[in-house]
Design brief:
It is a single chain. It is built from nine helices and seven strands; from the N terminus they run βαβαβααβαβαβαααβ. The model has no long low-confidence stretch (mean pLDDT about 95). It has a seven-stranded parallel beta sheet with strand order 3-2-1-4-5-6-7, with helices on both faces. The chain is of the alpha/beta class. It is globular. The protein starts with 7 loop residues before the first strand and ends in a 14-residue tail after the last strand. Helix 1 packs across helix 9 and helix 5 runs parallel beside helix 6. The chain has a single domain, classed as Rossmann fold, CATH 3.40.50. This is CYFA0S06e04192g1_1. One of its GO terms (molecular function) is oxidoreductase activity, acting on the CH-OH group of donors, NAD or NADP as acceptor.
Amino acid sequence: MNNLENKIALITGAASGVGLNTTKDYLKASNGSMKFILVDLNIKELERLKNEYLSLYPDMKDDDIYVTFGDLSSREKIDEFFEKIPAPLIDNLDFCVNSAGLARGLDRVGSIKQNDINLMFNTNILGLMTMCQLVVPIFKKNNKGTIVNIGSLAGEDPYPGGAAYCSSKAAVKAFNTALRKELVNFDIRVILIEPGLVNTNFSLTRFDGDTTKADSVYKDYEPLAPTDVSDLIVYVTSRRTNCAVSDIVILPTRQATMSDKAYR
């Protein structure tokens, strides 16, 4: 069953990885009938992608895709871009996909840089919470909507060197569970997807652009592709309104825990 025609989706982290592929999969699944609010730090890439999408789906109009620079590190910065989103899109929002997230370094407790801690928590949990704070009143008013929060297996199975990152993702799970319980009397679905190792720019960001270290994460190990996760997002959000797929862990077949060799 496909309930995506003419839906409106807000996607953070939309210029790369899971967010990028979620937009592409939504377009394909809806035959270009969906509308989008795409948020990312890389606004130039978002603008390029918008032109690409419009060329691939000629029936789409320019105002069917709104792209914005979005820094999730503070409430003030989020409010700044959120208030500029066109009313026809945000007031009728159907899906909010909180895909943006990052890790920085593998330092052990006692040596973790405070700036790295702040960045991970501000982006992974505080920014995600703020986005939910902003869209929940819209969803309540319309008594409809789906929130997809991207967590991590790291939130379930913390590993050495990941104390700050894993804690931020554990907080995502706790927040998601509380939010679902708060919205149980509304037709609003709250979904948590916790991937294992996915081959995106995640490791490149974690190691500050060091390609050797980033590539070593995937050496002799086949991770998930971003499309594995984005395909799942499309599936769970396209179910009928009374079908809520709640918490999902998705892993590469040969990964069982976060302490596997790839994370050392």
